[in-house]
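Lab notebook, design round three. We kept the backbone fixed and only want residue identities now. Task for the bench partner: fill in a sequence for the structure below.
Input structure tokens:
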């Protein structure tokens, strides 16, 4: 992959927030961008495929559609995920299992499918979107934190397994980001969050997307198995 090569990029959960910002950044570089969405499709500027990443058949169908439209996926950004926050004693087994399925097992599904083409090409980039919570922990988010911590083990294992085929696998761990999720919080809740961040603010989605596109660039060709924090210093030391 060179700076001038138009790559096939697939971003799961690309209809809003971090995923949509990543799609726009890759498109601005001239890449051919496809996104998956669960309910609401993004703007028509991208090739969009409806896909529930907890369903293996839908994942396989989504990749087949992208391959037919663009060709094999060369860059995968596994971003889709959910939250079901509640304290441990109120958390049902379904609350726990469904979040792990959507955030961690789904990443396994899309990585497994993407590497079929990457192994044949002996080239590829995989970026998993984790969270600072996966390293710090967070009260009321045992399920979410466990799923995001699991992405670290998944990413580093795949980095070791696939490195000999020139496939890099890295993990981006955002801190609090200015998205629809944080917009729904009260002013007091937001103040508590930003007070804990050394830089004293939330990140923009473009700041996360910039790191993702860097990890997919030729400049980052010798980076694999890395956990890149984009958290304003919140998780430093972990």
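Proposed sequence:
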């Amino acid at each position: 992959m060179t700076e001038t090569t138009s790559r096939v990029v697939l971003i799961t959960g690309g209809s809003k927030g971090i995923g949509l910002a990543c799609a726009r950044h890759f498109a601005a570089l001239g890449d051919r961008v496809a996104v998956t969405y669960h309910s609401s499709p993004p703007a028509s500027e991208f090739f969009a495929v409806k896909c529930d990443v907890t369903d293996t058949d839908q994942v396989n169908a989504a990749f087949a559609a992208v391959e037919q439209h663009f060709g094999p996926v060369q860059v995968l950004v596994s971003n889709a995920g959910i939250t079901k926050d509640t304290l441990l004693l109120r958390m049902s087994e379904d609350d726990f299992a469904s979040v792990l399925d959507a955030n961690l097992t789904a990443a396994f599904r899309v990585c497994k499918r993407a590497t079929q083409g990457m192994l044949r090409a002996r080239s590829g980039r995989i970026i998993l979107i984790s969270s600072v919570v996966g390293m710090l922990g967070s009260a009321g988010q045992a399920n979410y934190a466990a799923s995001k911590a699991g992405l670290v083990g998944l990413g580093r294992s795949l980095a070791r397994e696939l490195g000999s085929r020139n496939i890099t696998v890295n993990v981006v761990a955002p801190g609090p980001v200015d998205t629809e999720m944080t917009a729904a919080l009260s002013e007091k809740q937001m103040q508590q969050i930003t007070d804990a961040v050394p830089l004293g603010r939330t990140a923009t989605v473009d700041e996360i997307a910039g790191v993702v596109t860097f990890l997919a660039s030729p400049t980052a060709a010798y980076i694999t198995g890395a956990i890149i924090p984009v958290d304003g210093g919140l998780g430093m030391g972990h």
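Keep this in mind before ordering anything: The first strand starts at residue 8 and ends at 11.
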